[in-house]
Amino acid sequence: MMEQHYDKVAGELQIRLQQVSATARLIEEGCTVPFIARYRKEATGSLDEVAITSIRDRLAQLEELERRRESILKSLEERELLSDELKEKILAAETLSTLEDLYLPFRPKRRTRATVAREKGLEPLAALIFAQQEGTDPVAEAAAFVDAEKGVQSAEEAVAGARDIIAEWVNENDEARAKMRALYNERGLFRSRVIQGKEEQGAKYRDYFEWEESAAKAPSHRVLAVRRGEKEGVLDLQLNPPEEEALAILKADFVKGAGPASMEVEAAVEDCYRRLLSYSMETESRSETKKRADAEAIRVFARNLRELLLAPPLGRKNVLAIDPGIRTGCKITCLDRQGKLLHFETINLFASEATVSAAASRVRALCEEYHAEAVAIGNGTAGRETEAFVRGLGLPGNIPVIMVNESGASVYSASEVARAEFPDLDVSYRGAVSIGRRLTDPLAELVKIDPKSIGVGQYQHDVDQQNLKDSLDDVVVSCVNAVGVEVNTASEQLLTYVSGLGPQLARNMIAFRNENGPFASREQLKKVPRLGPKTFEQCAGFLRVKGSENPLDASAVHPESYPIVEAMAKDLGCEVSDLLQSDSIRKRIDPSRYITPTVGLPTLTDILSELAKPGRDPRKEFEGPMFTEGVSAIGDLRPGMRLPGVVTNVAAFGAFVDVGVHQDGLVHVSQLADRFVKDPHEVVKVNQKVTVTVLDVDPVRNRISLSMKEQGERPVQKERREKPAPRPGGKPFEQNRGKPRKPEKPAPFNNPFGKLLGK
Fold it and tell me: pTM of the predicted model, to two decimals?
C-alpha cells in the first residue's frame, strides 16, 4: 500500500493519519479485520471493523488507480507521446475517469469517420476551420483539398470530413468531458418507456412504462428495477441531461464567433454531442449510477444478513424438527444437543382421520423417546397448519413449539456440503435437519448456505456479483468471529470463516480432530498441519476450547495476553480460575499497573470484561415468534387487524413482515413510523418482533399492505358489512371513501385437527 495516499484516506474518513498508517501496516502484515479490531486497539486508536474495512477498501481503490496511472505513463513513453505538461496532468489526476480522459486522444483507436478524414489529408483543413479566424471561408479553403485519388470528390465533402475531425477533437477534450460529466451528474435524467407490444409481458414493470427521475436522486431499488426491465426487453431506458443545456456548454467553449467557420464548428459540436459525447457520457453515467445502486443494495443486504446471522440461538437442546408438506407428508428428524441426527421418518397430516391420529401418536412417542426439549417447524407451505397440529397434541413438559424461517434450507439440502454431511440421507430430510439446527444455532447452520440464497437481499442477482460476495463474506467473517467458535464441535464451514483460517486449514483442523480426538488446549492448535505462528496469532483468540486445563482457552482473551492475566492473579495471590469466578477479586485489579508500551487500557479493559463473562455470546436471549391463532392464510386477513409479526427483510422502500400466513406483508417506508423515515433500518431490523396493522389485502396478486404507525393501535372491532346510510346533515357515503374502515375482529381459530385431538 502506498504511503502517499494515507493523508487522503485520513481526510476522507475523518480519522487521524496515524490510525490509517497503523491499520495499513497491519493489513500488509497479513492481519485480518476482526483481529485488528479486537486485539490491536492500541495501534489503531480503537477503530472498529467498519472503519478498518473502509481503510482497506479505499487504499485498494487507490492502488488500482496507481496501477492504471503507471500503465498509461508507460504506454505514452514507449510511443514517445509523453510531454512534460501531459505527464504533470496525469500525475495530478485523482480519479480513474480523469485519467482516462487524458489518455483518450492517445488511445489506439478503431477506424472512425475522423480516421478516414485524416487519411484523406483533411486534418489541416479541420485546424484552419477550428481556428475560426475572421474572413475564413471553409468551402473556398476546402477547394485545395479536393483530390479524387484520395477520395475527396468536392469541397463540401472536404468540409464534412473536417467536421468529423473537429467533432473528435471536441469529444476528446478533457475539459469538455469534465464539464459534461458534471452536467450528467447534476442534471442527468433517467427516462424509461415500455417497448411497444411488451405491455402484457412486462406488467410487473408497469410503474416504469412512462417514468422519469433525476439520476442523482433515483433510489437504488428503482435504478436496479428499470435496468432489469431493460435487460428483459420490456423497457427502453435512457440517461441524459436536457440536450439544449449540454449543447450550450459545448458551444460556449468551442464556438468563437458567427462567421462561416464558426457555423461549421457549431455543426461539428452538435454532431459530436449527438453522435459521440452523449453516448460516451451516458455509458459512463449509467455505470456510475449502477455502482451507486449496487453499493446501496449490497449495504442493505449486508446489514440484513448480519441481523439474521446474529439471531438469538435457542442453545443446545434435543430438537424434533419438522419440514411441513402436504402432498409428500411432513419430514421429521430428531437431533441431539450437538445437532447429531438420531432418527428420521415421514408423517401425513393431510389424509384420513386414521392417518392423522396415527401421526399424533407418533409425534408424542418421538418426543418421549428422544427426550425432545423443543419442536422446530419450518414456516413454509402448511407450516401454520402443522404448528396447530403439534400445539394441539398436549406434549409432555410444555415443550415449546417454534416456527423457524426455512429460507435457504432447500438450497442447503441439495448442496455439496449437505451431501458430504449426509451422503445416504434423502434431500427432504436434510432440509428438516437444517431447520432444527437453525433453531439451536442460526449462525452455525446459515454459514453452510450461500448468503444470496437466504432471502434477505434486494435485487441481489442484479448487482456486481464479486462486490456482493466480498461484502457478504466480510459480514459472515465478522459475525463468526464476534461470536467465537468452539473448536471441537464446529463444522468445516464455520471454521473456514475464523480469522486467519480458510477452507484448507479448516479441513486440516477437522482431520486432526478426527485422528487425535478433541483439542485439549489452544496450544495444541499449533500441531495442525500448515497452521504456522502468524495464523495461530490471527485465529487463536476466536477459537474456544472448553474443558481445557487453562480456563482462558474458553474465553476471548488472546494467548498473547495470558501472561498479563497470570500476573494479575499472582499479584492478588490467587489462581487464574479465581479471577473468572469472583467479582470481588476482579474489583481489586488496577489495570493501570499492567500498561506496557504495546498493551494499553483498551486491551486491558477488554481483558477484564472477558474475565467477568468468559466466552460470552454477544447474541440476545432467544424468544420464539408467536403468531395470532386463527390467522394462518391470506384469506384470514382483514383490513384493520392488529397482528404480531417478525421482520424477514428490510429494503430501501420498506420492510417485509411475516404474520404467519405464508406470504410476507410489506410495510412501506411511509408506514414505518409517524415521523419521516429516510432509512428503514432506523426503525426495524431483520428478526425484530413487531406489531402491525393490516391496511389492504390483495389475494389475487398475493400482496399484503401493512402499517406500523401508532395511529393504527386501536381495538379491533367488527366491521359493518352493510353500506351505512348518510347521517342527517352529514356527508354522503361516497364522500367518506378513503377513510379508515372499522377493523374486523379475527374469526375464531379453526384447528383442522381439533376433532381428532379431542379439542
Answer: 0.84
